[in-house]
Write a structure and sequence with these properties.
By secondary structure, the chain is α/β, with parallel strands linked by helices. The protein is built from 21 helices and 31 strands. Helices cover about 35% and strands about 20% of the residues. Mean pLDDT is about 85; it is low at about 250-290.
Length: about 675
């Protein structure tokens, strides 16, 4: 089975219908086509007085554009292609992703992209029915919004749609057609083969941008879902299986075959496939590529090798210093080599107690729990090892409480659009990142994501079935979006009225990052549960669930457990950290300097014209940029500044809380040069 995605420009090639007909025959009818229509759509937009807008190669879809998308993609472009294929002797049938709701999707970010979405799990029954009848399905990538009760239309990127369809059909190959030979390097020479990590690195380094970046990102959906390989190439790729760029998952890119195989030949890189020398992007040449094959490649670790930390700098093996605007993703609030943390570790070691398990009492964990109770809304604390574990545990606590207070049907967990709560089975179901979710479907049931809207929540929070709603006061991975205090107060009132728990996820925004010890203090509410982690133990693995007495009493011995959580060594270090982070002088510094930081970022936006929006508070800021954020991160990295993204077009700033205004200013200067590509 092969799925072909036709780009808008390739559809005008007069040789295309005959080439597709030849491929359909050679594949014995196991072919599906997904098409675009970008050029036609852009021309029609301009005729209607609206200039097309793109972000990261994806079209911004206003209400007017959405109607034009349906008109062009599911209408004219689809029918023209079907007619041309019919004339070439192929029994083609044109359908839309909306037909039979076969292409479900969710909005990416309505404020940025409008009614543009990412695909969900495709229902292949309609396509399989057409294939079994000897027809060639020709699909327009207009999907159905599953997050909208009215199931309105969504403009789904054609590459993403083709990838999701290929996964659902169990396709061997996804062919993404473009108007160039394939993926090109900096010198505009063809790269004949790539691994998925190297493809990511090309996007991050800015070598692949715009529409090509979107195609390489779609590879993750396809390869992560079991498609053997993706090829990117022009019309010659339809008749020459060795043409274009072959992309596979794995550490080593395959070489191009010596001779053009038939459609039934082994996949390039598989046992039995022929090989010859080819242009392969070497792993070591691309920032972010895997350099330690003994570690599972779930992260694109950047070179070089860091060997020391001092204050707010990391130092690599060559002695180069990097100013840190990441803080280990909001973990290293006190920076590196902090004397107080080092002393706390040494003191904790002197007892000889590193670990005892939770079968026995130890003083450090009990002391830390009491401190957290004294400084928050909570009555009890459960310790664990990470933020994802804290949220996963909170879901269990909520369901245990729901059963005690509402019976067997009160178990649903509600999360908000844009949320990120972790990558474990339960927390992944509450995380609004389609690319994270798709490879692991089906996800845990009883968890749903709704819009950040009180009307939506009013419909979702059924007192008979809803156990809890979980909210990040500031959505970190979701773009550093500060939840409105008025919205939170309304939500708190609704949950109390309907006997639904409110869980606040302060894993990233808690412990002083907003200028108060906990972010909820600035919202005028108190939750029923709160999850914490990241900076709590200065980089030692620790998480915590803070709960009210009502929740705590619902839990019984054996309902949950942890081997390492709250151990004496980690708890001793955490005690020192939380006392430091709660110091009024520290919180005043974060609030005052954070306000200055926000002003500087806004001034940078005014100067550069390359920034669309600045959001945040304290030492947690998101900066929306026009170009892909990964390119800016790579340029900043080369100049000695560590940054991280929060989505395709958002830079996320999470500096250590001890960073001074002067050090922040130094980092902002590098950041501005990276944005200006200077």
């Amino acid at each position: 089975m092969t799925v072909v995605k036709l780009g808008g420009r390739t559809q005008g090639d007069p040789a295309l219908p005959l080439a597709l007909a030849a491929l359909w025959r050679s594949s014995e009818g196991r072919l599906v086509i997904v098409h675009g229509g970008g050029d036609q759509l852009s021309a029609l937009q301009r005729m209607r007085g609206e200039e097309p807008a793109f972000v990261g190669g994806r079209r911004v879809t206003t209400p007017l554009v959405l109607e034009l998308v349906r008109m062009v993609l599911s209408g004219g472009a689809n029918k023209q292609l079907v007619s041309a294929l019919t004339a070439a002797g192929v029994p083609a049938v044109g359908i839309s992703g909306e037909d039979a709701a076969q292409l479900p999707g969710t909005m990416i970010d309505e404020s940025t992209f409008g009614s543009s979405g990412t695909p969900g799990r495709v229902d292949p029954k309609l396509v399989e029915h057409l294939l079994s009848g000897g027809f060639l399905p020709v699909i327009s990538p207009v999907g159905t919004d599953i997050g909208d009760q009215r199931h309105g239309a969504l403009n789904i990127n054609g590459d993403d749609a083709a990838a999701a369809i290929a996964v659902a059909l169990g396709a061997r190959e996804l062919l993404l057609m473009v108007d160039v030979e394939g993926v090109l390097n900096k010198e505009r020479a063809l790269i004949t083969s790539l691994t998925l990590p190297n493809a990511h690195a090309l996007v991050e380094s800015g070598v692949a941008g715009g529409g090509m970046a979107a195609k390489l990102e779609a590879c993750e959906i396809a390869l992560g879902g079991g498609v053997s390989r993706v090829r990117v190439g022009n019309i010659s790729s339809l008749t020459r299986p060795d043409a274009g760029t072959v992309i596979v998952a794995g550490e080593t890119a395959p070489m191009a075959p010596m001779t053009a195989p038939t459609m039934n030949s082994p996949v390039a890189g598989a046992p039995g496939a022929p090989f010859s020398p080819a242009v392969v992007v070497p792993t070591a040449a691309i920032p972010g590529s895997a350099i330690a094959p003994t570690i599972v490649g779930t992260y694109k670790r950047q070179k070089p090798l860091f060997v020391r930390g001092e204050g707010v700098h990391l130092i690599d093996a060559d002695g180069k210093r990097y100013l840190d605007f990441v803080a280990g993703i909001a973990v290293n609030a006190l920076g590196y080599g902090d004397a107080g943390v080092m002393n706390a570790m040494q003191q904790a070691m002197q007892s000889g107690l590193i670990h005892t398990s939770n079968l026995y009492r130890t003083e450090p964990g009990e002391k830390l729990a009491q401190w957290l109770v004294d400084h928050s809304f909570a009555d009890s604390v459960f310790f664990c090892n990470s933020g994802a574990e804290a949220n996963e545990g909170a879901f269990k606590f909520a369901r245990r409480w729901g059963r005690a207070h509402g019976g067997q049907s009160k178990f649903e967990i509600i999360a908000l659009r844009g949320s990120f709560h972790g990558r474990l089975p339960g927390t992944l179901a509450a995380t609004d990142r389609p690319s994270y979710r798709l490879p692991f479907r089906p996800l845990m049931g009883g968890v749903s994501i709704v819009e950040r809207d009180m009307d939506e929540l009013d419909a979702a929070l059924n007192p008979e079935t809803a156990a809890a709603v979980i909210v990040e006061p500031i959505q970190g991975e979701g773009g550093v979006r500060v939840v409105d205090p008025g919205f939170m107060r309304e939500l708190r009132a609704m949950t109390r009225e309907r006997n639904v728990l409110l869980i606040l996820d302060e894993i990233q925004c808690g412990f002083g990052r907003t200028g108060t010890l906990f972010a909820y203090e600035g919202l005028g509410i108190e939750p029923d549960m709160m999850t914490l982690a990241k900076p709590i133990a200065a980089g030692l693995p620790m998480g915590a669930i803070l709960v009210s007495a009502d929740v705590a009493t619902a839990m019984q011995p054996g309902d949950h457990g942890t081997t390492f959580g709250g151990g004496p060594f980690v708890a001793s270090v955490a005690q020192h950290v939380v006392e430091r982070l709660s110091d009024p002088a520290m919180l005043s510094h974060v609030k005052r300097t954070g306000a200055w930081l926000g002003q500087q970022l806004q001034q940078m936006a005014d100067r550069t014209r390359a920034i669309r929006e600045v959001r945040g508070t304290g030492f947690m800021w998101g900066v929306d940029v026009h170009e892909p954020a990964t390119g800016i991160v790579a340029r900043a990295f080369e100049q000695g500044l560590l940054m991280v993204t929060a989505g395709d077009h958002t830079l996320r700033l999470l500096p250590p809380l001890v960073m001074t205004q002067e050090q922040l200013g130094e980092g902002l200067a590098i950041m501005e040069r990276a944005i200006n590509n200077a």
